[in-house]
Structures are given as C-alpha cells and as structure tokens.
Amino acid sequence: MKTEVHVHGSVFLCKGVRLAQVELALRPWLDYVDADHIADAKSLERDEPGIVYDAGERVVSICWTGDVGRSFHNKLTEACNNLGPLTEYASEVEITYYQDSGEDEFHQFFVGPTPEAIHEFRRQCVVEDINHMLSRHLGKQEVEEVTSLVTKMFDAHTPQKTSGSGSATTGSSTVIPLHPRNRHLH
Length: 186
Hints:
Elements: E1 3-12, H1 19-25, H2 27-32, E2 50-54, E3 59-68, H3 72-83, E4 91-98, E5 105-111, H4 115-134, H5 140-156, E6 174-177
Antiparallel strand pairs: 1-3, 1-4, 2-3, 4-5, 5-6
Helix pairs in contact: 4-5
C-alpha cells in the first residue's frame, strides 16, 4: 500500500562538500525512489524542485513529494544519518505522511554534525516556539520564566559527548499530529 509523503527542509553543509558526497549520503533514499542522482529524484508535484544541491550556498534544499511504502521512513532515516557528518550545523527536515484516513502524520528529523549540535538546535526550536506562543498571552517576565524552565529541562538531558565516529547524527523522529489544513501547499 502506497502513501503520499512530503519531505521539506534545508540542510547546511560544511565547506568543501561535493555533490558526489551528498549523493552517496542520500543513496538509501535515491535507491528507494530508483534514482541514480539527486536531479533524478523528481517530486510528484511539478512545482516542487525535489532535492537540490547548491554548491555555492553549501545547502541541500528538499521539497519533494512521492508515493512511498512502509520501508521509506527507514531509508530516509538512514539517508539523514549519512548526511549528518557532512553538515556544518544542525537543521530540521519535516516529513508529512498523508494517510487515506485523513489523519496525516508529521515527523521531524534533526540532522547535524553531532548529537550535541542537534540537541542545542532542538532546544532553540522549542524555546522559540514557546516564546512565540506565550508572548501573545503573557508578559515578557512570565515568558522568560517558562523558557528558562525549558532550557533547564533540556540541560538535564544533554547528550554525552562522543569521541568516536559512527554515532547517530540525526535526532529521533518526532511524530506530531497534524491538522489537515496544515498540509504543505506550494
């Protein structure tokens, strides 16, 4: 059974990363969609660029929709893990599965050079989200109290520094229920 999926995000690469390295990292995803190169991984949606490598900006931009099966998530996870060591800093990739039942699933992958970089980026995202949400209802001091508490909670779960290679460079995928009106439209 096939499910429509949309993958969206930008991954920022280290200086000197070449297209061949990016394609090797993304090979599990490319093989899944039967593409030899990222330029061959076309989106089902004509107005979406798919997967684009920009050497000048040192970024892989993803705006891709496809019909996938059950093993796609594992292949995407593997590709994001492979891409992590090529990144300069952590970033987010969003994945939305559009179920026939109308109950879409939204996942977030955090891709980065180290677990510590991913952890810090996740903390920053949560603090920004909370700050934005609460500032409409509470004063600056109350918002700062809450964001301070969130920072303490993240500090309590700081990942251990890793010295060897082979450590995971993607944060765990997070499932967030998505209201149907939030479907990515481009």
